[in-house]
Amino acid sequence: RLELDLGNVRAALSWALAQDDLLAVARMSSALRRFWHRRGHGTEGHTWLKIALDQRAALPMRILAKVLYSLGVLDWHQGFLAEAHACLVESVTLWRAVGDVSGLAYTLSVLGRATDERGDHAGARRLLEESQALFRQIDDRWGLALALFRLGFVRTMAGEPDAQAPLAESLRFFQATGDRWGIGLALYGLGVWAYTQEAFDLAGDRLEQALAAQRETGDRWLTAVTLNVLGDVARCQRVYEQAESAYQESLALFSLCLLYTSDDAAERSSDDLGGRRISKKKTKKNKTQRRSRT
Q: Which among 114, 157, 160, 272 is most buried, taking Cβ atoms within 10 Å?
């Protein structure tokens, strides 16, 4: 629905910017974080958030923490790990200062994944475990399900054989809430885990289920990532036409995501509006695993 109203959203942001109302730009751009990423507008969202952050002295501490968190999430999704880490670490400090447990829990969850991708697996687990404890403290089951997915994915990428457990628990929590996006995410994680175990039939089944949920909820980026892994699965099964089809659709979606930006935002930013980077990790058997930044 928001996609259909995007012209009005851009107009509102541009009007606030013209009025030098950076607080309104900060509030709106950070509130749209999930939309920016899931619908493939990450570059535009990043640019609006940077415009707000450039005037950070005008922002209350809680709003600044949210802007830094949102910018860190988008930087992480785009593969700018050093920038993401810096934003998320500062956001954590601010959330602790204002005593916002929910903001802290969500930021620690993303920081855990970003920390793992920088090579600090032990540090990532500590951050994710603290995030889980905070979500349990405030009884946020959706946030807990997300943190469990991220922990399971970190453990999968580390090659831990029992990494399936937190992924399965994540799926149960998302199913209990009825959240189709979360169900698709958890099924994707279970599909990747099965792929790393060379259980290709199981991986294909889980990933196809994940893909159905992702198409339903309209998450272009996660759909593209899932199709990419489905291509890997088909390639390993030597079903090459199916692999090629999945790769081509994945590439088309990634390319579509790269097209979106706003002229008003771009003109006010000197940031490089270039593309995202897809991270790859080799296993000991030299098989490629795709990382989903979610």
A: 114
- DSSP-assigned beta bridge partners for residue 281: 289
Query: Which one-letter amino acid corresponds to residue 244?
Result: E
100, amino acid identity: D
Q: Model pTM?
A: 0.78
Residue written as token pair 């910017």: 17
Evaluated on CA atoms 45, 46, 48, 52, the torsion sign reads positive
Q: Following DSSP, what letter does each residue of the chain receive, concatenated?
A: -TGGGHHHHHHHHHHHHHTT-HHHHHHHHHHTHHHHHHTT-HHHHHHHHHHHHTTGGGS-HHHHHHHHHHHHHHHHHHT-HHHHHHHHHHHHHHHHHHT-HHHHHHHHHHHHHHHHHTT-HHHHHHHHHHHHHHHHHTT-HHHHHHHHHHHHHHHHHTT-TTTHHHHHHHHHHHHHHT-HHHHHHHHHHHHHHHHHTT-HHHHHHHHHHHHHHHHHHT-HHHHHHHHHHHHHHHHHTT-HHHHHHHHHHHHHHHHHHHH---HHHHHT--S--------EEE-TT--EEEPP--
Sequence length of the chain is 294
Contacts with 115 (C-beta within 8 Å, 6 or more apart), sequence order: 85, 123, 124, 127
**pLDDT, position 51:** 82
Evaluate whether 179 touches 193 at the Cβ level (below 8 Å): no
Alpha-carbon distance of 134 to 282, in angstroms, equals: 33
Q: What is the C-alpha separation between 135 and 148, in angstroms, rounded?
A: 10
Which residue is associated with the tokens 């390993």? 236
Distance CA 107, CA 112 (A): 9
Ranges of the chain whose pLDDT falls below 70: 1-7, 35-42, 257-294
